[in-house]
Design brief:
Blueprint: H1 2-14, H2 25-40, H3 46-53, H4 57-73, H5 75-88, E1 92-96, E2 102-106
Antiparallel strand pairs: 1-2
Length: about 110
């Protein structure tokens, strides 16, 4: 599943636990990066991402705003986010069927 693979990679890169409810900087940054990737690639809605992390959809909107600020001013976050994006993107193949339902496949290279 996309979410499982993304969370596993993000936890390694950010040295965090994205499902931990604490407000430690690494955990929050990890959740922000995952939320932004899932939202920008149109994999999940705001509500569905919120359900994954146990927050309301408006929290995910806040994450997107915070992401823009972090990308602009925080060198460490930017590097971690870009390395997560670089690791994650090549493993996803999106296929659109005739009914506009998007199917995803994770491809692992040995």
């Amino acid at each position: 599943m996309i979410l499982d693979a993304l969370c596993a990679e993000a936890n390694k890169i950010f040295k965090a636990d994205c499902f931990d409810k604490s407000r430690l900087r690494n955990n929050v940054d990890c959740r922000i990066a995952i939320s932004v990737i899932l939202r920008q690639r149109r994999y999940y809605t705001y509500k569905k991402i919120g359900d994954v992390f146990g927050v309301k959809h408006d929290h995910i909107l806040f994450y997107e705003k915070k992401h823009k600020i972090l990308m602009q001013y925080t060198h460490d976050y930017r590097n971690k986010y870009l390395s997560l994006l670089a690791l994650f993107e090549p493993h996803i193949v999106a296929k659109e069927s005739y009914c506009r339902q998007v199917k995803f496949t994770i491809i692992r290279h040995a």
